[in-house]
Amino acid sequence: MMSIMNQRPCVLWLACAAQALALALPAAAQGLRAPPSGAVLPPARVDSGPRPADYIVAVVNSEPITNNEVRLRMARFEQQLAQQGQPLPPRAEFARQVLERLISEKAQLQLARDNGIKVEEASIDMAEQNVARQNQIDVAELRRRLAADRVPLSQFREELRDQLLLTRLRERELESRVRVSDLEVDMFLQSQQGRDDPAAVEINLAHVLVAVPENANDAQLAALRARAQRVLERARAGEDFGKLAREFSDAPGAAASGGVVGLRTADRYPPLFYQAVQALPEGGISDLVRSGAGFHIIKVVEKHQGGLPGARVVQSHARHILLRTTPQLSEAAALARLADFKKRVESGQADFAQLAREFSQDASARNGGDLGWAAPGLFVPEFEDAMNGLAPGAIAEPLVSRFGVHLIQLLERRQAVLSQREQREVARNLVREKKLDDSYAQWAQDVRGRAYVEFREPPQ
Question: Helix/strand/coil (H, E, C) string of the chain?
Fold first, then answer.
């Protein structure tokens, strides 16, 4: 069981809500964390208007970065900033920050290849399925939307490959370096006593954005405010907020997500969002919020104390089968074998526990793969994300983690009170998460510093 235990709390990386706020700092100093397997920045819609001829803006060691690469990445962040109601930095500074991030990523990808890290096609297939599942669609629909946005499937899958390479490199370089002492746990627990700040509160918000053009006149502004006010009144009257978001919101991705941004600590939301909902309970709806993007109507979907969990948490009871890849068993073969196990269990032709005892290469095999009751953050993110998406009794699609290939079945869930020992373990995970953030920031800066970078024409 310990092979899949996470040493940090689960960090959600939403496929359509990456941390655009990190652009306020240069890439080398952002402390960007590696996403779990299968997560990428959302593809940007390809601009159908006139574009300047492409050209090289920088060379990292021997590999070029082109102006179009910078433009496409900028378009992604522009979508995310607009969705979160954040103003754009000045364009020249924005382009410089995005270029620095691309340089950092390019240097890390080169290091991954130099170290022999590879990603099989089966892992990319699994990552593609994860992105589709996160957007509550199937792979066929995901590909249809990519085609409608004129994003080549080959480009999308290559970006998935790059993200998987970066994840595996960062895990190998950083995971084993971070240790947390009992003294650090004690200090963290002491610091949490009576703490009441945005970093200690987790909230999940949904919002409707009524966009206001940059040069809107008074009449346009009044009409858009009135439109937003009507949406607010309908939401407060009890209409389905997701339906209102799909019908009225101008935020990118609102049609797919129903306006839901996702669960995160409050300090990872724009300050004006948190200020608008700080005093609201779950289900509460804010007054109109004006940002540089337009008018927002914000609903509190979920809200609870973050950082150190409170007295009660939701625990999951799951079991799994783990196959480790070897020269004799490739990742693709392991995925295929577990997919066959899933089919046999669901059809009643095999028993999950018996298959685990016979085939699983984990210490839990002798218990039929039973992992016992687990609090949030106990397992690695990719495992926990898949488990959290299951209803009791359901079996997830086979997934790849740093430990091998898993087949997971959720048995049941319950509300539970954390013991003192469990609270200390959660605190230890949170301290380790912070230390990993700091280690990654320094490591990324070191990798960037060792690369030979030649700047050419500035991006436009």
Answer: CHHHECCCCCCCCCCCCCCHHHHHCCHHHCCCCCCCCCCCCCCCCCCCCCCCCCCEEEEECCEEEEHHHHHHHHHHHHHHHHHCCCCCCCHHHHHHHHHHHHHHHHHHHHHHHHCCCCCCHHHHHHHHHHHHHHCCCCHHHHHHHHHHCCCCHHHHHHHHHHHHHHHHHHHHHHHHHCCCCHHHHHHHHHHHCCCCCHHHEEEEEEEEEEECCCCCCHHHHHHHHHHHHHHHHHHHCCCCHHHHHHHHCCCCCHHHHCCEEEEEEHHHCCHHHHHHHCCCCCCCECCCEECCCEEEEEEEEEEEECCCCCCEEEEEEEEEEEECCCCCCCHHHHHHHHHHHHHHHHCCCCCHHHHHHHHCCCHHHHHCCEEEEECCCCECHHHHHHHHCCCCCCECCCEEECCEEEEEEEEEEEEEECCHHHHHHHHHHHHHHHHHHHHHHHHHHHHHHHCCEEECCCCC
Tokens of 368: 């039929």
Whether the Cβ atoms of residue 323 and residue 231 lie closer than 8 Å to each other: no
Measured CA to CA, the distance from residue 430 to residue 308 in angstroms comes to 8
User: What mean pLDDT is predicted for residues 80-102?
Assistant: 81
Please, what are the domains in the chain? 14-177 (1.10.4030.10), 198-305 (3.10.50.40), 312-417 (3.10.50.40)
Q: What is the pLDDT of residues 170-198, one digit of tens each?
A: 888 887 788 888 888 888 877 776 555 56
Q: What integer is the mean pLDDT of 205-228?
A: 90
At 235 the pLDDT is 92
pLDDT value for 194? 55
What is the C-alpha separation between 13 and 20, in angstroms, rounded? 12
Q: In what order do the strands lie in the sheet with 56-60?
A: 63-66, 56-60, 453-455
Q: What would the pLDDT profile of 300-352 be if each residue is shown by its tens digit? A: 998 865 545 455 678 899 999 999 988 888 888 999 999 999 999 999 999 99
- pLDDT per residue over 402-456, tens digit each? 788 999 999 999 988 777 777 788 788 888 888 888 888 889 889 999 999 999 9
